[in-house]
Amino acid sequence: MSPINLAIVGVGKIVRDQHLPSIAKNPNFELVATASRHGTVEGINSYTTIEAMLDAEPSIDAVSLCMPPQYRYEAAYKALVAGKHVFLEKPPGATLSEVADLEALANKQGASLFASWHSRYAPAVEAAKAFLASTTIKSVHVIWKEDVRHWHPNQEWIWQAGGLGVFDPGINALSIVTHILPRQVFITGAVLEFPENRDAPIAADIHFRDADGLPVHAEFDWRQTGKQSWDIVAETAAGQMVLSEGGAKLSIDGTLTFAEPEQEYPSLYRRFAEIIKAGKSDVDLAPLRHVADAFMLGKRKFVDAFHD
Amino acid sequence: MSPINLAIVGVGKIVRDQHLPSIAKNPNFELVATASRHGTVEGINSYTTIEAMLDAEPSIDAVSLCMPPQYRYEAAYKALVAGKHVFLEKPPGATLSEVADLEALANKQGASLFASWHSRYAPAVEAAKAFLASTTIKSVHVIWKEDVRHWHPNQEWIWQAGGLGVFDPGINALSIVTHILPRQVFITGAVLEFPENRDAPIAADIHFRDADGLPVHAEFDWRQTGKQSWDIVAETAAGQMVLSEGGAKLSIDGTLTFAEPEQEYPSLYRRFAEIIKAGKSDVDLAPLRHVADAFMLGKRKFVDAFHD
Known about the structure:
2 copies of one chain form a homodimer. Chain A is α/β, with parallel strands linked by helices. Chain A is built from 9 helices and 15 strands. The radius of gyration of chain A is 20 Å and the shape is globular. The first copy, chain A, starts with a strand and ends in a 5-residue tail after the last strand. Chains A and B meet through helix 4, strand 8 and helix 9 of A and helix 4, strand 8 and helix 9 of B. Chains A, B: InterPro entries: Gfo/Idh/MocA-like_OxRdtase_N, Gfo/Idh/MocA_oxidrdct_glycsds, NAD(P)-bd_dom_sf.
């Protein structure tokens, strides 16, 4: 088929680092326009609002929405009403309800909505899922600890109410956990640590279980200096599984069994082309639902102020 | 058909005030057993745990779960695995994920799961829905203000993390709003007020909108002494609609157009019998989803300590 004419809304760091190289390498897509308050892409028609872009560029088939989640609904709604397919960067919205609303609209419009979870496409995730399906799991420990000053320097929106705080990286862990475990889990208790000068948590300690009583413990922390940790460890009847480096590497009892180069965003665009071709949507709200559950159920604790 | 043999788990105030009289008047049900740590019902076999009750009383067809939401999943799971139909008092659980899990289990077991929202069965709710469907709505204002010391004296669980605080009554308003409005709404901003000595909010101020931009403003407050307010006010092209007293009365431009005696719990048990007969479930998570969204998106504010 002829390429899908794609537009990007919200040109920032993630777009330059991940979206643009992935789109450039994928023959299914042709980037035709961008809309962003400040960012532009050299050689591509640029607009400052999505309305102006949709008006001026009727050839657009699909849009990727990469602005902060607080502003995503409005743009997604306008794009879907205009009959465009929509790729939502993670998290897919500021609330569960607005994403449910967009999903219903996409179905009505016959457009494809993709709520993307990039970490699910990390190299070793499918191998981890297959391993866990082949054995009995005794417990799971998720350790997701990174240095927010390094990864999100001066990004004010992540600290605002609705910006999710440490759940911004933590939701990546949750997107993997919900994909690789054999049964759904649910939260039984959580403690969320809020810096006294911020509206979003800097750390979270969460206990889950599934219907069979499998204990799952997740620790998210944004104050980690030195070595960064993005690990999922499962104790199983067939040994200890370690899915490390955000899903890049898989080890069983200390032996590396799977490692391939990272291909997350190229995989996301392959998936987006696939669902557009198939005329369907891909919207799994489980990771965001766990975050909302953690905020609803969790105990709040106040810790030292955080300054960038 | 012969009566449905019913058991109640968690015998407290709401059971004595509402469930028992409603069950006694409904020929579709026969109360055969209770399980509760402390409460019993005169003349009915009583047990201290649901496990002991299910073991000893194989004739049970259905159970009503009326304990605090933090403990509901475990009991619902056991009942569904035993093939019993399950009635969940509101809110249906401590997390959205656990209720989604129960719904999947009920479908698998061929049992009926009823996530009940008693306020949806308030007398004037259907009349309000019909009125709103007949006109154009300009704005909606929800005022749900009551005295927690009067309605929940010394109920510690409502103040614990996961106890929902002022959302315990507020979710009743949300269950009505989500039922009577023509389109789904979603939260755009919220402020939650936490007493400095409690883990659950005592007040919440929430702004919603729908896809057409309809503004919906909800104020929940547990510090209201004197006159209590459970009102939903809609400004419409056909005048001002006031659904008052928790859904009991409907007025248009000051003229009372609908008022009938309260029949919420009798209606809930009629509905429960109906879905059991039809072999289906009735699980609408929208009210709880809005509460989770409010906790996730809302700004936290600290207010004076609360003492019972």
